[in-house]
Specification:
The protein is of the alpha+beta class. The chain contains three helices and six strands, in the order αββββββαα.
Length: about 200
């Protein structure tokens, strides 16, 4: 009787572990699609929010996916990602509060961080625009920074090694479990039909 209970308990733990593993795998795949696949296929760029100027909408550590946009399509209320200085790599994401049209027909955008009390000092010119925020994923930005930063040279091999070790463990434990089941089945058969 206790053997059946142990088998049921092991069965429950097995299925619980299987469910947790499937859930973790589904989350990893979903994050991979949102962070890697969709940006690659849409021409978007993943970027990490580093400051609190856009809180509470985009707190530090949020991964934002910035989709390219034509300057004429930018609207008031858009979260605009633009170069702080034209031609330089540093960017910021602030909300468009005003669209200006000069007499010569050139557009300019007044921006402000959601958490800032005043608008940004200089208007944004079309040449500075990288795109608008398409969607965001909280907390993933720090992981993105680590993987794409200076630590990439040792983090990627470490993760690959850990995954290989886990795969080896899962394979070995599967072999051991199968061997135990066969041995138990043989023992039951020998007990039922002694020679």
């Amino acid at each position: 009787m206790s053997g059946r209970r142990n088998a049921k308990a092991r069965g429950l733990m097995y299925y619980l572990g299987l469910g947790v593993s499937a859930g973790v795998l589904a989350i990893v795949v979903l994050v991979g699609v949102l962070v890697i696949a969709i940006p690659v296929f849409s021409g978007s760029t993943p970027m990490t929010v580093l400051t609190s100027s856009m809180e509470p909408t985009y707190p530090p550590g949020t991964l934002i996916i910035v989709k390219p946009i034509e300057p004429e399509a930018v609207r008031i209320g858009d979260a605009l990602t633009y170069q702080i200085e034209s031609g330089k790599p540093a960017v910021v994401t602030h909300r468009v509060t005003q669209v200006q049209n000069s007499t010569s027909g050139e557009l300019a955008f007044i921006t402000k961080g959601d958490n800032n009390s005043q608008a940004d000092e200089l208007p944004v010119r079309p040449v500075q625009i990288k795109g608008t925020v398409w969607y965001s994923i909280p907390w993933i930005g720090y992981v993105n920074n680590i993987i794409n930063g200076d630590a990439r040279s040792w983090i990627v091999p470490l993760i690959a090694t850990l995954l290989l070790l886990y795969a080896g463990y899962a394979f070995a434990s599967g072999i051991v479990t199968t061997a135990r089941k066969r041995r138990r089945a043989r023992e039951r058969e020998e007990a039922a039909f002694p020679s």
